[in-house]
Specification:
The complex is a heterotrimer of chains A (411), B (328) and C (173). With 411 residues, chain A is mainly α. Chain A contains 19 helices and eight strands. With 173 residues, chain C is an alpha/beta fold. The chains are: A mainly alpha (411), B mainly alpha (328), C alpha/beta (173).
């Protein structure tokens, strides 16, 4: 007797309303239950690691910010750490505090954005609209501090590029008060809503063993009850002074399930934690320089002479972001640049989460790890298969002109 | 007389399409204000339809063309014919002698079946999943709805034996609340709740929009529709929405202004007609728009269990109470 | 769980691996105004001692966290660096362990560690696609990270004739 399957395969992606970025899933489905899933990544390749080996670290900083729009300071910070460790550059204390403030502001905006997307995935559009409206405040604040809403361009090798003055401090405090008043209401809006609870409780459960053995990172791991957080485990920048406690969902609910609801709880509690961290950082901020070496030419010479390798880690909104950098003497450019974005490690945990899920749960499970496909795919430019020769720019132009003529004749 | 009826029918069809789209616009605007957005202009649905009618009508390669193209027409005609059997204000129903409340329930089913057929005929896996979900939804809400209608009809047949108990005009002439005892009022309230919960499912709106869940199955049954066909479905949706709310208005809120103000003749008809549409709008806002913005989408099994157990129980208890009210 | 110091870990690995241990060092870096010290371990071992090394890690910490493996083309050899972290979960307790292995390009075979740490599967898959290291007994799957029509035998991270030079177009001329 062979195995009889009554199922059918449903492709989700690369382009699908539930996915904000391209990735491809193939679900084997029986009725409304998922039996098996295959994941295909690689629809957003830009070849960033390869590009990086042809640029110097300062240029790479700006490229790294463009790996992903939402966690932009995350990659820049991780790269800066890696280069600083490789070359033993000391970062001034004030710069470490400013880095912390920007990183935590970004965490607030990213988590609110995620909560909105999650609400949209379960069809709760009102919450989505309201949350994104709330998020505008922190985006404006980031623009005041850095000059940009996204891709802040504030991190520099050995420090930061802009200082926070008295006026900005007042602005930040005003914003923190705004979020303090709203954080309770956000929790009520999502966590106490009966339909949201029905859709997220006991959905996409990731057990503690699976999370640990599959090396999940970030809120995905903490929601399963593992108190791991790089800000706590290996304190870097100003986190070493302030001290961070990893957030697990039992603080709010009293139990650990590891489902989508718990992931929501972790993220919403982290917003409160970020508010406290920024508050402390603003009061404890020492005076002093904000960058190790202001003159870029001198800095580049230092990089050219220096040699070494370093691993930079930063706890981004989605989890641990790792950059490995190797610098060899006599060259400005990075010899090796390896990026490991959080989503990369959160791919495999999807498989146990999808097991026996329903079709209706697919979007919210995909969204629950806060995936960032652009972070995941960073490879090389390729040409379409089936062509022996590569079309040059002139040929393409010629073809385009010919097509225009053909169309004119038809008219 | 027949010619006048045909003329009136044509006029009524155009009128309900117009009102359906207008109320759709108002619904969208109110929802937008509730979600802290500005929202589209109120006549946006008209723009949408005009634009869709100019677009190319694409039939997928692996579709069944005649069903695929026929389903939108079936849905639209079914939705429009809802109004031929419904009184509006103090106007008797246009074809009241040919159909009653049972027919209306059937027409709703036909409109849903049209969507299912269109979905299955598209040949897309998303549409197939959506059509299956629409079927499940249909099976879920029909039972409570039928129970509720039966309860009302039985009550009327016992109270007014000489009037046709399934005709909607009876309900307008003799408003239900004025003839009930204490138990009966509770029973009628339970039945009203049951019908109000059925409404969003009947119309495929959040929290019961599983057949067209955008984030799950990419607009489900509608995924392959475009151009004229989609415009027909779009209008059908608007007409169906006001059709369902008009039914509830006729069953439970049939009061008219003219008798209170003491107006008679042509003026009374016009006044009651306008008041009827105002009632429909208010009920639409409460039963569709507010529900739509306040909830998340439920899952198929959650919906089925909700309708089969709590809601069926509600309408059954309503039926029981009304029976007790009559017999005790 | 007994927490070992960085030095103790290096001596333990050296003792267990014996011949296959090449060298090990500790790097430190500071953070914050208080200059809190963090340690990192950098080891180099022979490629086929990897599974044994991971078993040692599993004795120290039940679930070692595999961050990623970075790879580099260094002329004749390919150097793969595995980044692990153990002892997470308490303030400033985590240790980062980086292990280098070198395999010759003529025979780029590495033992898989995904049966010990399932989470390392994805990074091994990536190494196969990107630099052409061959892992033993890895489940056969084509192109997780690259497009399906990517030409065979070309590895984007190679700096030799197998590199991606032939695919690069100047788009801004």
């Amino acid at each position: 007797m062979g195995k009889v399957s009554y199922g059918y395969s449903v492709p989700v992606g690369p382009i699908h309303p539930a996915l904000k970025e391209p990735i491809e899933f193939h679900f084997e489905i029986e009725g409304e239950r998922v039996k098996d899933v295959k994941i295909y990544a690689g629809h957003a390749h830009r070849g960033i690691e390869w590009i990086g080996t042809r640029r110097n670290p300062i240029q790479c900083l700006y490229i790294s910010e463009r790996i992903c729009g939402i966690c932009s300071v995350t990659h820049a910070l991780a790269l800066a750490f890696a280069v600083e460790k490789a070359l033993n550059i000391e970062v001034p204390p004030r710069a470490q505090y400013i880095r912390l403030i920007v990183a935590e502001l970004e965490r607030i905006h990213s988590h609110i954005l995620w909560a909105g997307v999650a609400a949209h995935e379960v069809g709760f559009d009102s919450a989505f609209m309201l949350l994104w409206k709330i998020r505008e405040n922190v985006m404006d604040l980031l623009e005041k501090i850095t000059g940009n809403r996204v891709n802040y361009a504030i991190v520099q090798i050995g420090g930061v590029r802009r200082d926070i003055n008295e006026e900005l401090r007042r602005e930040i405090w005003k914003s923190l008060d705004y979020y303090r008043t709203l954080s309770e209401r956000i929790k009520v809006l999502l966590l106490e809503d009966p339909t949201f609870m029905m859709r997220t409780r006991n959905v996409g459960i990731l057990s503690k063993e699976d999370a640990l053995s599959l090396c999940a990172v970030g809120p995905t791991l903490r929601a399963s009850g593992v108190p791991k957080d790089i800000r706590q485990d290996q304190p870097y920048i100003a986190y070493a002074d302030i001290g961070v406690k990893a957030i697990t969902p039992d603080i709010y609910t009293g139990e650990i399930v590891g489902d989508v609801y718990d992931k929501t709880v972790v993220r919403l509690l982290e917003i409160d934690q970020s508010i406290d961290l920024i508050d402390k950082a603003l009061t404890m901020m020492p005076e002093g320089d904000i960058v190790y070496e202001k003159n870029l030419v001198k800095l580049l010479n230092l990089i050219k002479k220096g040699e070494g390798e370093g691993v930079g880690r930063h706890e981004g909104p989605r989890g641990e972001d790792v950059h490995y950098v190797k610098i060899v003497a006599g060259s400005e450019n990075l010899a090796v640049w390896k990026i490991r974005a959080p989503t990369y490690n959160n791919l495999l945990p999807w498989v146990p989460m999808f097991k026996d899920a329903e079709v209706a749960d697919i979007p919210i499970i995909v969204a629950s790890t806060d995936p960032c496909m652009s972070c995941l795919n960073r490879v090389t430019v390729v040409y379409p298969s089936g062509r022996k020769e590569i079309l040059t720019h002139e040929e393409l132009h010629k073809m385009s002109v010919e097509k225009t003529r053909r169309m004119r004749k038809k008219c | 007389m027949l010619a006048l009826k045909i003329l009136l029918t044509i006029f009524l069809s155009i009128f309900v399409m117009f009102v359906g789209l207008l109320y759709k616009g108002i619904d969208r605007k109110i929802a937008a204000r509730l979600q802290a957005r500005f929202g589209p202009p109120i006549i946006q649905p008209f723009y949408d339809v005009i634009k869709l009618l100019q677009k190319e009508n694409i039939v997928p390669e692996n579709a069944v063309p005649w069903i695929f193209n026929g389903a939108p027409w079936l849905a639209l005609l079914a939705s429009i014919s809802l109004f031929f059997y419904q009184p509006m204000g103090s106007l008797p129903p246009l074809l009241g002698d040919r159909g009653d409340i049972i027919l209306i329930i059937y027409i709703f089913t036909v409109a849903a079946i049209a969507i299912v057929a269109g979905g299955f005929a598209s040949g897309s896996p998303f549409a197939t999943v959506g059509a299956q979900r629409e079927m499940v939804l249909l099976m879920s809400y029909e039972f409570p709805l039928a129970t509720a209608i039966i309860a009302l009809a039985w009550y009327y047949s016992k109270t007014f034996p000489d009037l046709p108990s399934f005709s909607l005009y009876t309900y307008v002439l003799k408003p239900i609340w004025s003839n009930l005892g204490v138990l009966g009022v509770f029973g009628a309230l339970l039945i009203l709740i049951a019908i109000l919960v059925v409404t969003p499912a009947e119309l495929g709106k959040i929290p019961f929009d599983i057949a067209e869940a955008e984030t799950e199955i990419a607009e489900g049954v509608m995924v392959e529709y475009s151009g004229k066909n989609y415009a027909l479905f779009y209008i059908a949706d608007g007409v169906k929405t006001i059709g369902m709310t008009a039914l509830i208005v006729n069953l439970f809120f049939p009061w008219n202004l003219s008798s209170i103000l003491g107006i008679s003749g042509m003026g009374a008809y016009i006044l009651d007609f306008l008041f009827f549409w105002i009632k429909v709008l208010v009920l639409l806002t409460f039963s569709v728009t507010l529900v739509r913005v306040a909830f998340a989408r439920l899952k198929v099994d959650q919906i089925a269990s909700l309708y089969w157990f709590p809601l069926l129980l509600t309408s059954m208890v309503g039926l029981l109470l009304m029976v007790c009210d009559k017999l005790v | 769980m007994k927490i070992l110091e960085a030095k103790e870990i290096i001596s333990l690995v050296k003792e267990r691996l014996g011949e296959d241990f090449i060298n090990g060092e500790i790097k430190t870096w500071n953070a914050g105004v208080k200059k809190l010290e963090n340690k990192e371990i950098w080891l180099e071992i022979k490629p086929f001692a990897l599974p044994r090394f991971v078993s040692i890690l599993k004795e120290l910490d039940e679930y070692p966290h595999s961050m990623v493996a970075s790879a580099e083309d260094i002329g004749e050899d390919i150097q793969v660096i595995y980044h692990f972290a153990i002892y997470g979960g308490e303030f400033s307790r985590e240790l980062q362990i980086n292990v280098k292995v070198k395999v010759p390009k003529s025979d780029p075979r590495l033992p898989s560690i995904s049966h010990l740490i399932p989470g390392a599967l994805i990074t091994e898959q990536e190494k196969e696609e990107m630099i052409g290291v061959v892992y033993e007994n890895l489940p056969e799957r084509k192109h997780v990270f690259l497009a399906d029509d990517f030409p065979e035998g070309i590895y984007p991270w190679r700096k030799d004739e197998k590199g991606p030079q032939s695919l690069i177009r100047k788009v801004n001329e």
